[in-house]
Specification:
- Helix content is about 40%, strand content about 25%.
- The chain has helices at about 15-30, 40-50, 70; strands spanning about 10-15, 35-40, 55-60, 60, 65.
- The chain is globular.
- The relative contact order is 0.26.
Length: about 70
Amino acid sequence: MPPSLKDLSVLVVENEFLLAINLEATMRDAGASKVEMAASLADAERLVEESTFDAAILDIRLMDGDSLPLAQR
């Protein structure tokens, strides 16, 4: 049985558009109830302040900084 993200919320932080939309579709296909997208560290930090997430997929190097501190949160 394939892994399921049923009823989980996922944050996807990726600055390459095609990769980001592919990841979003994959998360939704796996059952994620909520998928939030961010293309920059600033946007991702704002989303983390506003919501809680069960999982995150993070691009480490973004145009406005490194997402490792965000991963630690």
